[in-house]
């Protein structure tokens, strides 16, 4: 008899159902036949085992651009287990959010297992804007430039043409700074910050531009012809 429960023993083993898990029972054994019940044995303490824990599956997936820790796959957990999953983006990618049975942007994300779950880590590609560089243009006395003197910003790799424009009575001489040379029109590729200066020189007194000198020469020849006539 176990706590008032009777069982007939027909061999050396005994099975009793209806007991609570993780519970201690006190057992006494006695023989019963037509003559009646025999003496009881000394009390025997028996403790039943815990019921197996209920388990659920957690399926972890990772979209393009990264992985997770634990790694993507299906894992089994006892109910009530606290689980933490971390999204790990690849180089050039960023973690964006969770989808499935977990949502939000927490990383890592933690939750309690109470049912079968599927979660997915979603990543987005990081767009790096092109680098920009500054072009500073200056003009000394005697002229200007096109674009006008000042500071300009260009995307890396941009080709920029700058022209030196002398004033009347002046001529372009050369470039100084990060660009040198005597060509009044230059083209630079913006691979770093640049500073250039247009340098001009005053034309000697009595020195006329070629075009103006040519006009005067022609006019003089015409005047001479007229006088001869």
Can I get a quick summary?
The protein is mainly beta.
How would you describe this structure to a colleague?
With about 230 residues, this protein is mainly beta. It has three domains: about 1-50, Immunoglobulin-like (Sandwich); about 55-125; about 130-200. It contains one helix and 18 strands. The protein has one helix at about 210-229; strands at about 25, 30-35, 35, 45, 55-60, 65-70, 75-80, 80-90, 95-100, 110, 115-125, 130-140, 145, 150-155, 160-165, 170-175, 185-190, 195-200. Strand 2 (about 30-35) and strand 3 (about 35) form a beta hairpin. It is rod-shaped and about 155 Å long. About 10% of the residues are buried. The mean pLDDT is about 85.
Q: What is the fold's blueprint, element by element?
A:
Blueprint: E1 24-27, E2 32-33, E3 36-37, E4 44-47, E5 55-62, E6 66-69, E7 73-78, E8 82-89, E9 93-100, E10 109-112, E11 117-125, E12 132-139, E13 143-146, E14 150-155, E15 159-166, E16 170-177, E17 185-189, E18 194-202, H1 210-228
Parallel strand pairs: 5-11, 12-18
Antiparallel strand pairs: 1-4, 2-3, 5-7, 6-8, 8-10, 9-11, 12-14, 13-15, 15-17, 16-18
